[in-house]
Amino acid sequence: MEVEVPKVFMKPLLVPNKTLMGPGPSNATRRVLDAMSNPLLGECHQENLQIMDEIKEGIKYLFQTQNPATMCISGSGHAGMEAAMCNLLEDGDVVLMGVTGLWGNRAGDIAQRYGADVHYVRARCGYALSFEDIREAFQTYNPKVFFIAQGDSSTGVLQSFISDIGDLCRRFNCLLVVDIVASLGSAEFLMDEWKVDVAYTGSQKVLCGPAGITPISFNQRALNKIKARQSKVKSYYFDITLLGQFWGCFGTSRIYHHTVSSTLLYGLREAIAIVCQQGLKNMIRRHIECSYRLQKGIENMGMEMFVPEPNHRMSSINVIKIPNGVDWRKVSQYAMNK
Which domains, and CATH codes, for the chain? Predict the structure, then answer.
């Protein structure tokens, strides 16, 4: 029996213009949207490679790093998490996950799938981890890799003293992986100064770019761990030694790895350009000031923020405690409709 043409494709595509107020994606500027309407390029066209090189320099500025192995993964922020885990971990490696919400658990799930021996250090819901809890867990498990989300979008918790965690990781010869998907651009992050070995962010969060292209950076300690592996990286697609050659990170001839979306590159390039022209410190300050005003307004209405400690609240994800007797689903649906 012949499959008929779906009638839905006889109609034009209609996309509403919504104000996006969730944890991501964020509304893109007209400049970013216009950039993505440019003609397509092949992944190996010189003009496309030039855009990739410009994006690398922009990521280095955003991450505050000089790492040559700075590039993008074709995929959402989850792809950055998976790339970090599958490149650094081999069967039986001990890894410690700092949990301040959903993402520590998610990273642990991914690490287990790559054969790691996964352990957790958990904060109370709505609270950041204390340095003492992390140090005690290091002494107990002696991990080869430690993961923490700087900002956990499921709880709105901002984890502080990343620099102290970096020092701790060096003392234990442990690699530090930091998820900055929802925090980059709204909180200070200094990859090199804080001794972070791997970091990745989301293009569609504070950067207000298109989803599906994930900036990531590996320092030399992380690359040394990857080069010393006793087995191949279990994912060809996420193998940084190959992907880095495609992105021109290692000073060798570029290789074809996969067909990167030129459209996403255009959008990300312009999103980074907006941050560069505004200034990273100015952007962070703006987010902090706007979040402070929002929090004060919420409290003046008699409601509470979910994270009790103001210094541990993300400025990009403002989480409100649901008042007694309120059906959050109805509130959310009302906001969606209106």
Answer: 30-274 (3.40.640.10)
